[in-house]
Amino acid sequence: MIAEELAKKLREISIAEFFEKNKHILGYSNPAKALVTCVKEAVDNALDATEEAGILPDVMVRIARIDRSIFRIIVEDNGPGIVRHQIPKIFGKLLYGSRFHAIKQTRGQQGLGISSAVLYAQLTTGKPAVIISKTSPKEKACKMEIMIDTKRNEPEVVSESDIEWHRPHGTRIELEIVGSYVRERRQSVYEYLRQTSIVNPHAKITFIEPDGYIHEFERVSSELPKIPKEIKPHPHGIELGALLAMLKTTRASNLKKFLKEEFVRIGDKIADDILAKAGFNGREHPRSLSRKQALRLLNAFREVQLLPPPTDCLSPIGSDLIMKSLMKEFNAEFVYAITRRPKVYSGHPFLVEVGIAYGGGIKSDRIEVLRFANKIPLLYQQGGCALTKAVESVNWKAYGLQQSKNELPNAPAVVLIHLASTNIPYVSESKEAIAGIPEIVDEVRLALQEVGRKLKEYLDRKQKLQKKKKKEEVLLKIIPLLAKKVCEVLEREPVDADRIVARIMGKVHFERVVEGDRVRLRIANYSKAKRAFRIYEMCEGDVETDGRVIHASTYSTIVWNVELMPDDKIELEYRCKRVINRKPIVDGLDEEIVSGAETHKI
Amino acid sequence: MIAEELAKKLREISIAEFFEKNKHILGYSNPAKALVTCVKEAVDNALDATEEAGILPDVMVRIARIDRSIFRIIVEDNGPGIVRHQIPKIFGKLLYGSRFHAIKQTRGQQGLGISSAVLYAQLTTGKPAVIISKTSPKEKACKMEIMIDTKRNEPEVVSESDIEWHRPHGTRIELEIVGSYVRERRQSVYEYLRQTSIVNPHAKITFIEPDGYIHEFERVSSELPKIPKEIKPHPHGIELGALLAMLKTTRASNLKKFLKEEFVRIGDKIADDILAKAGFNGREHPRSLSRKQALRLLNAFREVQLLPPPTDCLSPIGSDLIMKSLMKEFNAEFVYAITRRPKVYSGHPFLVEVGIAYGGGIKSDRIEVLRFANKIPLLYQQGGCALTKAVESVNWKAYGLQQSKNELPNAPAVVLIHLASTNIPYVSESKEAIAGIPEIVDEVRLALQEVGRKLKEYLDRKQKLQKKKKKEEVLLKIIPLLAKKVCEVLEREPVDADRIVARIMGKVHFERVVEGDRVRLRIANYSKAKRAFRIYEMCEGDVETDGRVIHASTYSTIVWNVELMPDDKIELEYRCKRVINRKPIVDGLDEEIVSGAETHKI
């Protein structure tokens, strides 16, 4: 019988065998990428470990070339270390970890990362991973060589010993892999570490390249980011199957307790509200609920207004820091960033942050997209990532940029997108691209539109200023000629052309008339607003004035506080030997609306 | 101690838990896509099962709407059925299957597909999958309701019974899921089934939509595709870790036997060659090899010339069938397709097939890419797929198409790409996009360039013809006027302008002169080749001629066989009451080189 024949071939597949055959899914599709992925997994772990332990991270990454295509990777951190009996499973078993079941923002979330790097090393060079770990300055470090028994997905300890290690505590991993080292490219270890340091300003990262060149990514802030707190699931977006599973395994003795204890954002009142809407009295035993009754409960969840999940399970970068980083990295003429409020998808809280930098030092034709997920830079699969697609789907023409439909806009600009979540929906285990979850895409689009509006305001203002400036330039050329001609014809004395331009352009105009030791300052406010400002004049010798005088050793400064209504004029008079400053100095007015004086911040 | 605290949280993660939380990785990122994915997994299984059993597939897909967002999916096949004790694990355990360890081309390869659909159903509606399976007409069918215990990744049989079922053998699965049904879109169940039927012409697929509308995708060919054979791994591209594992587990008693028994394409002579190059005598026990010795063996593999892996582990569609399908689907003016020879990546044989269709019924601005992997249509993640990137990376300008750099070319064309392999390197478990494996990308590019060159030839020919036609049109307008004028000036009789044009254009020119019942056919070969053809004239009444006469009831047809050398002329004369055909009819000459007659295939 054919079915019997076919049945004989059926077998269980270990997850390690699966990934051994499909290593590209974990990010090992070619030697260059494999090297970046190994470093990434180790560094992500180092940052998570130090952060959880409240330690300012000090991470060392070293890559050494062993042979043409064989590299040794060493990553060392000052984290809390790993207790001896857990070392084998953490590094030698896929799907093992502490962060999968916890609802809070972490870099690692799958229990796959570092063990996959060990698997790749073993597959390509046959060498075990060498781990050194120390949990206390009082103890020796533990050194282990670990391999993975792929048929069983269980660790194999090749050797174990106690050694002296210089660090008081921390973890060190050494891997030997088939790889390829690239330096300049956008997808490189250097670029990964650079972007990591942008969004982790509290981390110090030292990177030693194969040729011995040392990069130091210094700590910019000594403040540890707030440690995200673990929370319970949020009722919005939870699915029936998940709810049924929760009802089965809860320790709560009745339905009301179940709601209050197992979910976040359900208090006494809301629990009653949900129970009433679902037709329960709250004393039912959770395990007694049928599928249909659970469905009623689920529908009631959706009918009640709930607060979004608490933000303390998430650790955003913060709009200030994003703007600072963008400004520092790109020297742009305009930057703006926002952090959106947390939202939920399928019960997982998430939030979106978006920053934009425009012009200045940015010379690219097309907008560059920097993607981050839980503070990890995403270097690969830009085209397949929902964050990129969100950028493409926004109508940037509305915000003053050129764009072909559904493509990245053409503009000298950089967009930074950070998705923070208790569960980042990566397209695959290689954690390179975000899946197109509608709730997330919507949030990213809204964030982009928000920064887009700010950009538009800036571009409009810039354009307006440019127009105004152009108009002024034209006027400044024509009016003096015109004025001269008019005066000649009318046989009048020549007028001050600058004042005429200032009047037309709506500026505050300053004119200094000096006759011997008598100086008069004429000030006219041709703008449409009340203006308050200070005027400074610097003089040699004795001074006679109604302004306030500040004496220095060689000269005196006179200060007036002036307030002028629109179309108001004033004349200030003083006497002195000689005025030093070329033009009057004004404080409190924008350069754009001042004529005949210099603006200065004092 | 912090390390101890952290250690307490460490846990093993079951693969079912992992995918429950990351269901988008398996293709369930939104309700519309989830519905397509469920159907896809069930249909792929049905096609694999029937193919393996040598049965012409007859697959029924039915989708019924249960509630606004809840759908029931039923997929039924006439395959061999599944033996009772295997049903729970096949549908209720992730990473369980028969195709993972076999080196041959199959649709399923991970042991994840159908169980993931069961997991999704259970997660969203809480309902078990209902399986009916019958392995022989003599027995009753077995009906089981299956759920997955996600914490353990083990099946739970909710109910089991024997029932009567109309089919002699086969499998039926029923799932209830939260989904969304779309019809017209490119990413729909209909489109998936349509494309599936294009590349599986031996399959009959019946699709019943929620509104009851029935689509029948008929079987085009009753020939079963050749069943791919299982092979051993190919030495090229195998990695050190994999080789070490093989050396450990082989039953071969010495190294030479190991090489000959465990690999494909290694015979006696090549084994000796490899052993000599690696410095072995062949009598070493495989298990005794050190890592360094294994590395020597691996390097020797790469130094010897080996045949590519046998093709019988792969089942290509075939270039003929691809061309036929493209022609049928798109009614194009030009189609071409090729099947490349098999190649290897990381020890996995693969081959690439590419077809192109241009113009005619295709009206799109941009080239459309149809992607297939092991005869499964890939509907999602086009942007993130290495096949798409390969199309973008080709310089299509060299083949006569417009293209912005590294984008899909702008042309009314369709490109079909089929990757067949014993192990398709999908980007993720959702099997939507191919990873950028360099060997595969290279092959796809070469294939595209090959069809590109053919397209270029066609476009050049077309352009040449168009130019010629244009020239002719111009001549046809001017020459009669010119001729008339010349004749007037010279006071000659008007000449036949058509003949002049025919001479200039290098055609075979026909002229019929009728005087009473006397008809003369003047034929001149102005082309540069010898021409052999037949001429037909159809007449009423009695006929007098030296040609062959075929009598019909109301008219007679005269046939001449004519052969003319370049610049030769001939005159045929006959008598009849009346000629019926407007112009002489010619058989054996292309329309383009005929003037004054009609070409016709008889």
Descriptive report:
Two copies of one chain form a homodimer. Chain A has 602 residues and is α+β, with helices and mostly antiparallel strands. Chain A has four domains: 15-217, Histidine kinase-like ATPase, C-terminal domain (Heat Shock Protein 90); 240-303, Helicase, Ruva Protein, domain 3 (Orthogonal Bundle); 315-460, Ribosomal Protein S5, domain 2; 497-599, Immunoglobulin-like, CATH 2.60.40. In chain A, α3 (31-52) runs antiparallel to α5 (113-125), α8 (255-262) crosses α9 and α12 (386-393) packs parallel to α13 (438-490). In chain A, the strands form four sheets. Chain A has an eight-stranded mixed sheet with strand order 7-6-5-8-3-2-9-10. The longest helix of chain A has 53 residues, at 438-490. Chain A is 32% helix and 26% strand. Chain A is built from 14 helices and 27 strands. In chain A, 47% of the residues are buried. In chain A, β12 and β13 form a beta hairpin. At the A-B interface, α1, β1, α2, β4 and α5 of A face α1, β1, α2, β4 and α5 of B. β1 (11-12) of chain A pairs antiparallel with β4 (96-97) of chain B.
